Amino acid sequence: MEVGYIIETQVVDHLGEDVSNDQLNTYELWSTDDMKIRCYMLASMNNELQKQHENMKSAHEILKNLGELYGENSRTTRYEITKELFHARMQEGTDVGAHVQRMIRLIQQLEKLEFRMDRGLYADLVIQSLPDSF
């Protein structure tokens, strides 16, 4: 039986009073399939992740949260890139062009993650990363 649709379907909190038998059967099938997928997902996680996700309402919600934690746009990735950007320092005697290119790459990585800062702040970060002798 195909249950992949569960991942793409958000939970239905309340069916209402005037629900048809077909709608009720569809909901019950969805609910059963969702429970199976949630169990598979939780069983494949370590204890810490299980505790974080065990009370979520649906497999869709678990997957969404995992994407926020570990996906391409994750906070951890943004944190690591911004940390590198804010702590970047050009060493005396190294090529300024290579250093500025590195800073630009970090800024572009943040923009790909849909994290944008004021352009003036970017310029300030590049300038403050240069050695005092510059």
In short:
It holds the Pfam family Retrotran_gag_2. By secondary structure, this protein is an all-alpha fold.
Structure write-up:
- This protein has 134 residues and is mainly α.
- The protein has two domains: 5-70, no CATH class; 75-128, no CATH class.
- Helices cover 64% and strands 0% of the residues.
- The chain contains seven helices and no strands.
- Helix 5 packs antiparallel against helix 6.
What is the helix tally?
Answer: 7
Largest sheet: none
Spans of at least 5 consecutive residues with low confidence: none
Radius of gyration: 24 Å
Strand percentage:
under 5%
Structural class: mainly alpha
Helix residue percentage: 55-70%
Care to count the β-strands? 0
- The succession of helices and strands, N to C, reads HHHHHHH
Mean pLDDT level: 87
Distance between the termini: 66 Å
Morphology call: elongated
Give the total of domains: 2
Secondary-structure map with pairings?
Blueprint lengths: L4 H4 L12 H23 L3 H7 L5 H12 L4 H13 L8 H17 L6 H10 L6
Helix pairs in contact: 5-6
List keywords for this structure.
single chain; 64% helix; 2 domains; mainly alpha; 134 residues
